[in-house]
Amino acid sequence: MTGPASDRGPAEARPVLLRNARLTGVHAPGDADRVDVLLRDGLVAAIEPATAGVGTGPAVEGADLGGSAVEVVDLDGRWLGPGLWDSHVHMDQWALVRRRLDVSSARSAAEAASLVGERLRSRPLAPGQPLIGYGFQDALWADEPTRALLDAVSGDVPVVLVSKDLHSVWLDSRALAAHGHGDHPTGLLREAEAFAVSTAVSAVSEQQLDEWVGEAAQAAAARGVVGIVDLEMTFSVDRWARRVAAGTTSLRVRAGVYPHDLDEAIARGLRTGDVVPGTGGLVTVGPAKVITDGSLGTRTAWCHDPYVGAEGDPGAHGVATYDREALVAHLRRASSAGLVPAVHAIGDAANASALDALEEVGCGGSIEHAQLLDPADLARFARLGIVASVQPEHAMDDRDVADRLWAGRTGRSYAWESLAAAGVRLQLGSDAPVAPLDPWVAIAAAVWRARDGRDPWHPEQRIAARTALAASTGGRSRVDVGSVADLVVTEADPLTATDAELRGLVVSATLLGGRFTHRAL
Ligand SMILES: [Zn+2]
To answer: Where are the beta strands (DSSP E) in 33-126?
Structure first.
């Protein structure tokens, strides 16, 4: 950790006056709705009607507009709203994935293999370099992914493809040999074996990764993001302190803690919400993440009912990774040390079990994903004050898989409106790299539940734009005087935008604590 001098963090921004803004969430048609907004000391210091002319309102009067003390930026009627948070990110993975071959469009194993072949022909790799691809969804394929299919196109290059949900990897023979699975029959590895391979191929130098994370953070800021909850699986508090010291200052970061690092976190006295020294307040200790089941696509999410087509199989209900006693013990230990739990639970049985354990410990926290719920558990979320931390774009990716594997149950899957109506606090995220780190995509999926011109999927579970926005900003659906100057300027009003408009929303500027982190004005 660095000394107290650097605790002040990035240099204080000078005051900024944003002229002619329209406030997201405040506008009523026909109003004289343009305002001037003064940002000072990291806060929204004043909001005044722009009609009176700049500098004539009482609060901005003393701001020395004629001198250089205040930077004046004319927004020309653009929309000003609270800056966005992505509440579930795996940032190192996302930084790596942004540089890899995307095979998510493949509708068959053969198609994925041909994308690999095309890439190797069009952009050959340096000798010995593996090709890493990501995003395949073999649950939807009619043909089998095999090592032979990849061998036919990979030549000398080891090929590793990581599935969209990260629970499977598909390797050619060279890569299988390199990772100690030379005699594997198919080349398709699941769960622990898959995690081991994807971890190994993600092992780039710290310096390289920091550089790529810095680029990814800047790209996020360019989409209006001011903060992320980083649920990267290796302890990231110290990495983020190092990155901020090296100049990656475009995001606030809450850095999560996994069970394998809980001892260290407790020994260091880290509590959720603590500011990490030397980061100027940008990095804080995040929640204590714990994973209690698998995923839908791999049929490992733990469900009350068997997966359709798997009835009678040993794993027909998915996988519980903790028994009740162990989960309670873990949550109790984390929460009594001041670490707020974030419990990964996807199937309805996993969610019920997580709620049981959270209720027994009485600690609050969030459930991550909450994809399939017993309707009886909706009120429990609300009563216990458990946040439903959901990733709406997953529903757009997985609707066909859900229709098949959870047939007859999808009315209570990705049930965001049911949660909202029950009074449950929602927060939205991407689970990047599973979906892109772009909160407008998450908001679009939450509000419209449609993509690619398809009909909305279970439109009764759409949530209001204002609800989706508040779930992406830590509860702020508008800019108020006295609030933190974490802001986004957009070309259109996100509260009235269509699905396509939201996904393509042009972000003109992003400010963090009153300092521009992105500026295209
Ligand atoms: Zn995740």
So the answer is: 34-40, 43-49, 71-74, 79-82, 84-89, 101-102
Q: What's the CA-to-centroid distance between 464 and ligand 1, angstroms?
A: 25
CA 450–ligand 1 middle distance (angstroms)? 22
Cα angle 323, 343, 190; round to 5? 70
Ranges of residues in the chain whose predicted pLDDT is under 70: 1-13, 27-32, 51-68
Ligand 1 centroid, distance to 377 Cα (angstroms) = 22
Specify whether the CB–CB gap between 390 and 433 falls below 8 A: no
Closest CA to 106 of 136, 147, 149: 136
User: Ligand 1: distance of its center to the CA of 431 in Å?
Assistant: 5
E strands, 274-336, are 283-291
Q: Are strands 252-257 and 283-291 parallel, antiparallel or unpaired?
A: parallel
CA–centroid distance, residue 74 to ligand 1 (Å): 39
Report the pLDDT value the prediction gives residue 391, as an integer from 0 to 100. 98
Give the torsion through C-alpha atoms of 320, 322, 327, 330, to 10 deg: -140
Report the separation in Å between the CA atom of 51 and the middle of ligand 1, taken as the mean of its atom positions: 47
Q: In Å, what is the CA distance from 515 to each residue of 11, 241, 305, 315?
A: 9, 19, 51, 52
Please report the pLDDT score of residue 57 as a whole number: 55
Cα 288 to middle of ligand 1, angstroms: 13
Cα 89 to middle of ligand 1, angstroms: 6
Structure tokens at 452: 């690619």
Q: What percent of the chain has pLDDT over 90?
A: 85
- How far apart are the C-alpha atoms of 463 and 417, rounded to whole Å? 5
CA–centroid distance, residue 192 to ligand 1 (Å): 16
pTM: 0.85
Ligand 1 center from residue 427 Cα (angstroms):
14
Calculate how far, in angstroms, residue 127's C-alpha sits from the geometric centre of ligand 1.
Answer: 33
Predicted pLDDT at 12: 58
- DSSP string for residues in 69-95: SSEEEE-TT-EEEEPEEEEEE-HHHHH
At 131, which helix (H) or strand (E)?
strand 131-136
